[in-house]
Amino acid sequence: MTRLANYFGAILAVIFFCVCLALTQNQPISWNDIARTAAIESLVERGTWAIDDSMWFDATQDKVLLNGKFYSDKMPVLTLIGASVYSGLHVAFGATLASNCSVCAYHWLTVLLDGLPAALLLWLFFDFARRQKHGVAIAVIGTVALGIGTMLFPYALVLNHHAPAAASLFASFYFLTTRPPDNRRALIAAGFFAALAVSFDVLTGILAVTLGALALWRWRRDIFWFALGGAVPIVVTFLLDYQIAGTILPAYMITGGYDYPGSAFPATLGGNGTPDDYVVYAFRMFLGAQGLFVFNPLLLFALVGVVGAALNRRHPLWREAVCVTVGFLCLCLYLATQTGNLGGEAYGERWFVAALPLIFAFIFYAPPLNTATWKNWAWLVFVPAFALSAFSSLQGAASGAWHFVPPPFQLLRYNQFPFLGFKWNMRLP
């Protein structure tokens, strides 16, 4: 049994990957994944980053006009990886990204670029729990909670940068927390994955910086190796950005790129505005219609764990907890004050997806998972929260991450249960 327990992480990852394989759609459905699909198709079939001639051009507004041509406003590294995958599928199996294709590459692109990283993340997460001396049952519960009780699951089923960014960011954290004192390769890996997360999603830079601070705090004499690992994805990103726009700035950070007739976005950083009412917007972001905590109630337990560890200098992950807490608070502050559309038409507050595994790593240090007994009152709260989180996540997966789904507590108000496929005959005020 002890030997079999070592494979539980792999088993959970395989199950999760198979579910992704079965549930992933065959076509892009939102501006977000259509823009990336158009860029991947253009790279492989026409050898250019410009998407003007793509069949998907008119189906997306997530694009910028630079030097007379239109480009996807997504970060380029994941697109380049996707183009490599698509090229292989296109040559070997005749797969295409056409909307009426007989062999559709989109399904496999999504499975390999999002489903697979999410599955590997769960494997790492389970191994992290075991390395921190948590029991097998507790490690399984925590891993399953992350897999089907958060926004990770719905976003593992659509083509996006959130799931691979989450996997990369947690991989960096994993190598920092499991690094032997004399292992420079682990620091190189930690730096590489932290920077890779940023190359997928610039917003993760806030958390990547705190991981860099953690590396400096713990191993200041060896920080060069962390920086060395991080240099590779950053340099590649700069080169690709320069190839696209003639500058090392990402396309979506060139505010003038959104200034063209018919643009759906203001000419601002990332096409984002700021909230009209900061208090109302913050409430909606954390507790309201797209509230982080109403879609992910289990996150409250993880927050108890990370804050408790950050306030306890004797905790084995005290430094890690301090850095993750500071990074998460900075991310919350930035999103609450510098964005104005809650991530657009999507399931939950998607900009937090990459941060969730880092916070969830501390759920093992909060009741009831931090106790060695099943006779703990906290299970009476944890189990319903788990069920509610899983229900919400399954709703997001069934409806599609690029559709708005009401949080569980608001379902009666919206008079329907989209995931279950029936409606109530009552309406609450």
Sum up the structure in keywords.
57% helix; disordered C terminus; globular; single chain; two-stranded antiparallel sheet; mainly alpha; 429 residues
Descriptive overview:
The structure is a single chain. The protein has 429 residues and is mainly α. Helix content is 57%, strand content 3%. The protein contains 18 helices and 4 strands. It has a two-stranded antiparallel ribbon. Strands 3-4 form a two-stranded antiparallel ribbon. Helix 4 crosses helix 5, helix 8 (162-177) packs antiparallel against helix 9 and helix 10 (205-218) runs antiparallel to helix 15 (318-338). The longest helix is centred in the first third of the chain and has 27 residues, at 105-131. It is globular. The chain starts with a helix and ends in a 6-residue tail after the last strand. The relative contact order is 0.11. The model is unreliable at 412-429 (pLDDT under 50).
Structural topology:
Blueprint (H helix, E strand, L loop, with lengths): L1 H4 L2 H16 L7 H16 L16 E4 L2 E4 L3 H18 L11 H27 L4 H13 L3 H4 L6 H16 L6 H17 L4 H14 L4 H23 L32 H9 L5 H4 L3 H12 L7 H21 L17 H5 L18 H21 L11 H4 L1 E2 L4 E2 L6
Antiparallel strand pairs: 1-2, 3-4
Helix pairs in contact: 2-5, 2-6, 3-4, 4-5, 5-6, 5-8, 8-9, 8-10, 9-10, 9-11, 10-15, 14-15
Give the count of helical stretches: 18
Kindly report the average pLDDT value: 88
Structural class: mainly alpha
Give a count of the beta strands, DSSP E runs of length 2 or more: 4
- The low-pLDDT segments are 412-429
Major beta sheet, specifics?
Answer: 2 strands, antiparallel
